[in-house]
Amino acid sequence: MYRGHVGASLIVGGVDLMGPQLYSVHPHGSYSRLPFTALGSGQDAALAVLEDRFQPNMRLEAAQELLVEAITAGILGDLGSGGSVDACVIMGTGAKLLRTLSSPTKPIQSPGRHVVVLGEYDRSSNAEPLQVLSISKAITHPSWNPTTLNNDLTLLKLASPAQYTNRISPVCLASPDEALPAGLKCATTGWGRLSGVGNATPARLQQVALPLVTVNQCRQYWGSRITDSMICAGGAGASSCQGDSGGPLVCQKGNTWVLIGIVSWGTSNCNVRQPAIYTRVSKFSAWIKQVVAYN
């Protein structure tokens, strides 16, 4: 059984007599044949590669490489959805794995293909006052490690400024010396899976309160995988789940909400008795300010 991290599906590609075939394998074990339904907004990019490059009676090696290119295009096209994908193409000599491209290993090559949607609450509604803004640049942390998921952070520069409203407002960034005591109640939001079984996702934005967990407590579950660039929360009856990746973990300090974490990874079944892992924003505040200053 495939056991991915929070927000991941496994895209498996193979070649048979009909040509390249793709399947989406979910962390809980179910699977479905694509065309690229699991890639969300990336499906058009992936299908475009297949339709442009596929030829009848292709050599096996050429078909396998075409699958790699199509899946990669689909993953990069899906970055704006908040999800993440592991891609695996089965070769004659073994599996070729493209790990967790939710945060790309290199900057997005075509940021103009992606948009940021602000002010959304109910994805089934067409009446919400949304702002849909283009992205001019995506900057991934230079020490991002797709194997360990350490330094899991990408900044997006908007092509035009957001307009603040009663539905759209900024959040404060955690400072380098932000005090984060264990047990502090924080909140995370997202449109990810509603439980560790099944694939049901909500139309309306969900919110849940989570207690912070110390690094030592978290390592009791996850061992040395937990670094000082991560923060753990949950394990008390609620959890982030697949589809929430990239979402916020915020804590209220007085009348101010502070962004202290970014949904990164966790158990494949969204175990509500085991803490999930978030990027520790306070460790990156200096880098964030430097990037903003020079971009």
TrEMBL record:
The root-end lineage is: Eukaryota, Metazoa, Chordata, Craniata, Vertebrata
Q: Give the source's domain of life in one word.
A: Eukaryota
PROSITE patterns the record matches: TRYPSIN_DOM, TRYPSIN_SER
Peptidase S1 domain residues are 11-293
- Kindly provide the name given to this protein in its UniProt entry: Proteasome 20S subunit beta 10
InterPro entries of this UniProt entry? Answer: Ntn_hydrolases_N (IPR029055), Peptidase_S1_PA (IPR009003), Peptidase_S1_PA_chymotrypsin (IPR043504), Peptidase_S1A (IPR001314), Proteasome_sua/b (IPR001353), Trypsin_dom (IPR001254), TRYPSIN_SER (IPR033116)
Q: Which PANTHER family match?
A: CHYMOTRYPSIN-LIKE PROTEASE CTRL-1 (PTHR24250:SF66), CHYMOTRYPSIN-RELATED (PTHR24250)
What's one GO-annotated cellular component? proteasome core complex
Gene for this chain: PSMB10
Pfam families xrefs: Proteasome (PF00227), Trypsin (PF00089)
Gene Ontology biological process terms from the UniProt entry: proteolysis involved in protein catabolic process
